[in-house]
Fold each of these.
Amino acid sequence: MQTIALIGNPNSGKTTLFNALTGTSGYVGNWPGVTVEKKEGMMGGHIIVDLPGIYSLSPYSPEEKLSRRYILDEQPDLIIDVIDATNLERSLYLATQLAELGRPLLLVLNMADLLEKEGIKIDTKRLSQMTGSPVVIVSASRGTGIDELKEAIEQSLSEKHTALCPLFSNFIERYISQIIKDDYLHAIPKGRPVRWAAIKLIEEDELFLSSMPPLPEEFNAYLTKVRAELVAHYDDDPEAIIIDQRYKVAEHIAKDCQIKKQKEKSFNFDSIATNRIAAIPLFILIMGAVFYLSIGLVGGYTTPILENLFGYLGSQVFTLSDTLGVHPLLSGILVDGIIAGVGAVLTFVPQLFMLFLLLSILEDCGYMARIAFIMDRMMRTMGLSGK
Ligand code: GDP
Ligand code: MG
């Protein structure tokens, strides 16, 4: 019995594909220690795990940590990267990181049904050559390409090929090949490729370093020197340099493998939502609207009504307990404690209801995934994730 991990950006269709592959055998649990949903199911005698959606394997959020740890520690026999084919470049940023993990990788281009409408053509053969991974094109929601995918999965499981690692600039590659030679790299836990480890050492990835024995003084001094030379050459910090190079690789592959038809003046929301200049003002505008609708509009109406209601209820209970001769301590607990306390909380419920309703609409239509991507690069320089 072999294990298959489904991974990919949020909203790329992992869960839809998971359901298409596993039928009704899927079951939902929780990952130990965190409130992140874990879905497991069976397909043709193999276990399939639906991992949380992530943008990057440099983990900042619990989901990213979990997905990275799962792939490194559990060593699934096959990683399936579910890609929203209409957003190839964004998805390849993650794919290139998955390729470094030294596990068999299969790229699934989902949302095939939308490609024609969006005027995009993808050369899957070329994509497969450039990434060194098989590529299958499907539509998870319509169920097209699922049989081909099942075949490709069986083939990948028996072949156990590994993906091509994306190459960085020569300047960085020279250091990587130097670092790989050091004896310290023998200490890396089983299943973690040396090249990946070398990159993590350049990035000074804390999660990785904490899983390793302390760095010998000499090697540490060498790494510090490498980082200083990178900073001097690129005028940026090592982690940001690697991130930037990864984006460049993704951009390069995407450019090479897809043809985008110039659409005839049709309004394309995506081009504005992820536009470098317009995205942030638009985001602020949308969030402003969300807050106005929930806190201003809904809250403005319901807060006074609920406040009056609980005020009235309180005074009624107070007069009632007064006529009944209830001890002031008890009526105080009832009126000023319970009624006023619960009332204060309940006055927020309509606003929160509206707020979460609007946020889940934004999440479902995929806007949140886009804005998280836009914010990711910026937030990462502050050590946070776009999410
Ligand atoms: P996840 O976040 O990766 O698990 O994504 P989901 O499986 O929840 O899917 C996100 C959205 O994409 C849902 O609204 C799906 O109905 C939709 N979706 C999934 N697959 C396809 C597809 O092949 N074509 C289209 N048009 N929509 C899809
Ligand atoms: Mg999902």
Amino acid sequence: MTNPLLKSTSTILGIESSCDDTSASVIQNGEIRSNIISSQEIHRKYGGVVPELASRAHQSHIIPVINEALETAKVSKKDLDAIAVTQGPGLMGSLIVGLNTAKGLAMSLGIPLIGVNHLRAHVSALQIENKIEYPMLCLLVSGGHTQLILQHNENDAEIMGSTIDDAVGEAFDKGSKIMGLGYPGGPVIAKLAEKGNRDFHTFPDSQTKDLDFSFSGIKTSLLYWLRKELEINSEFLNEYREDICASYEKSLVNMLLKRVKKALKIHNVKSLGLVGGVSANRLLRNEMKEMGNRHNLQVYIPSFEYCTDNAAMIAKAGEQNHTPELNLYL
Ligand code: KG4
Ligand code: ZN
């Protein structure tokens, strides 16, 4: 479905600034022409995103990032038909930078401003490269959210399960912090896990009702187990770092897959989707593909550049307009 605000052919600038990535993208008649992402290195030394620093970094990055997105796409501001911007959820100080920049630009150009839901945009990322077969069961895994979504069609979705505490991305990030490995934790743990033994240790899954998730227990379990082992051998972490990462990653992936498997027993779907920053995880990507094969389902997973936060997914969602109630008419 195309956004009724737009002509059948359209050029949209997407802007994303909900957390610590400043991104701008141009989509033209359904095709991504540029997707510029500027990641903020400053948070690494703090082991997590510092909201005030994120907001300040967005302020200095946003105009150069937008200009680069336009230049790469070879379009000028006057070629734009609309601007799509992340309206939420996210860090307020970060969101405001993208929203105000987008609003000022849209007003000066006299074009519509489309507010986009960040989570819905992660799902829209799948449509950049695929024509989806519905109904689709989509696992959304990011730094702030973990959801199992039953997508009946492009516009109609139901949330079947959510985390009751931490998101799975947070479990990667906090686990990494406990091990002193840095931020963001997911890619660091995944890299070390490649050389480790996944069966070195099994972390217990939390009991949750229905299709809900819980990830706060596994992080605490890692902390206490490491403390205990370090009392016996102070070099435990240095000696077994790769094995610990591999076991932690495997346990997190299994916790996700268990719920997907359970959902597939309840809901009859034609395809499986995997979106959000944690969908960049190779083990999870492979396991989802295998699950799809076993159930004879099509599996959609975005290319790496559309997994973690990016403005291409915002531009795509703006083009489709899934969330008309968020539209900000000028
Ligand atoms: O979607 P995203 O970019 O931002 C949010 O909307 O939260 O997701 C960021 C999350 C972080 O927790 C990061 O550690 C995780 O995605 N992540 C990964 C990998 N790459 C990023 N987690 C596991 N394996 C990865 N390869
Ligand atoms: Zn995200």
